[in-house]
Amino acid sequence: MADLQALPSVWTRLRTWVSQTSHLVLITGGLSALAALVAVGALAVNDFRTVRTSHQNHAAMLARVLEDQATRTMQTAELALESLATSPALTTVASEPRRMQDALGQALAALSFLRGLAVVDAGGRVVASTQPGDAESFVDLAKLGPLVAVGRTVQGGLTPGRSLQSVRLGGAAAAAPAGVAFIPVMHGYKNEAGQALVLLALVNPDSLSNFQHLTLESEVFDSVVTSYNGQVLATSGAAAALAGTRVNNIPVFSQFLPRQEHATYLGVGVLGQRQIVSFRASAAMPLVVVVETSYRTAVQSWLADARALIGIGLALVALVLGLTFAVWRGLRTRERARLAIDAAQARIARNERDLSVLMRSVQELIFRTDAQGVITYVNAHWTVMTGTAPDRAIGKRLHDLVEPQSRNDVARAIDPRSPDGVRVCQVVSRSAEGKEMMFQVAVVPLVAAGRVIGFAGSAVDETKRWMAQQQLQAQIAFQDLLLETNPLPISVTDAQNRFVRVNKAWEEYKGRTRTAVLGKAFDECLPPDEANVHKSANKQLLRWGGEPWSRPRCAMATDRAATRAWPRQPLPMSMDRSVVCSPS
After folding, report:
1. Cβ(446)–Cβ(453) below 8 Å
2. Are 405 and 428 in contact (CB under 8 A)?
3. Which helix (H) or strand (E) is 54 found in, with range?
4. CA torsion angle for 250, 157, 80, 166 (degrees, to 10)?
5. Where are the alpha helices (DSSP H) in 379-462?
6. Facing residues of 154 across strands?
7. 427 and 410 in contact (C-beta within 8 Å)?
8. How many CB atoms neighbour CB 465 within 10 A?
9. Contact between 309 and 43 (Cβ < 8 Å)
10. Model confidence over 508-526: pLDDT tens digits?
């Protein structure tokens, strides 16, 4: 059950994998290479079949040629014997052995493929022979072949020896030289007296082997000539050691003969287990010609011819694989780059969203302009500051959003030729209700390819601080006016007993200008007694009235020597007095 549930997931992953272009290229390239390999393989197999068929057909042709030659040779021997059987020199009663021998010698001279001719009676006595020493000797006809009837011709098996001496009776047979043999062909006839005689022809198997050798000299084939019972009579040379042995265990004799007189097959042959074999049995003589070649030879021949085809095919497959790899690598690089770009764009989008949220949460006005100062972006704080939608600001010039007295400052802040990095200025703008507003503006140029393409900046609303500053300045001016116009001589000192302010009445009372005393200590500007009074008053003020860092406190002291500090005992209004203040 779990395997069935896993199948859709596997199928989905497989479809996802296949849907990628680089993987499709790999699949297509692999299939193309496989198709090319299959095509080359098919051509190679077809070419090999052609080569094998050619070898089989050629073997069949050679078998037909060699069979025809072997049959003609034996038929010629048969016809010669039949002709001699009617010769008067061999049939008349009065025929002498010398005369018979001369007739046999004349016939032998015309038949180069015979080792000798002989006439043998039914008892095995050699009546006449072309071989010296065979006459009047006795031979074992049973060793030469089956009993021959009158008027019939029979062919015997391969017999070792050069002459009939190898089958002689009544004495030691002559030793046969190695590799020397003959094929007896016997014809039965009667002379005029009715005596049964046998004409005997000793066929030289080397004549058959020589013709085989000449025929197959430029070929990769070998051949053997056998009898019907599988005895090897002649060979082309490769199977010379098999002469006289039987090879009736091969399919030629065990499967095909006698049902088929000729056939070609791949299998066991005379010279090996895996051979291309073609055989042909003679219709007139008890002969079978077997032509064969090694299957490996056919393969080697095919490889020699198909090497170029296989090389071209493999080069084509390698080319397809190389092109596939190159295209796959390029597409894979592009896919990775695309994935990197997508990831970067996703990060950029995420950062933009985060930045957008941040921009909306920032309590400052954030804006951006092009190189000419036209606004291209403002954050949501525009609505808070102006009461209008941010879209209303897009396309407007920053120069037009400020009061005339601030336009020069704006022009300097967005000057592309300025070398300054951060440009800071204060500008005055007017809200939709007509209220003046003060902004602290900071502008940074945006540079790309060595030139300014725009500006990014922020504006902090400092209207309240500006108004408070204006009010404070007005209040300070009013206090200065009050201090200056007060008829009482007043001085202001710091915690170190130095003069920081005196009014006009003080200057007139003391007869000294403020420039001469400001910044100086009591001891430098006042008589010692008066200076001590002021110091004592300041100490009491600091002790009872607060700390040096609290808001300013003032103490009034007479310019006369006084021993009591203010404010415990007020001074008479008629007295000249000064106000001593200790600012924070």
Report:
1. yes
2. yes
3. helix 21-85
4. 150
5. 381-386, 407-413
6. 186
7. yes
8. 12
9. yes
10. 888 888 888 888 888 888 8
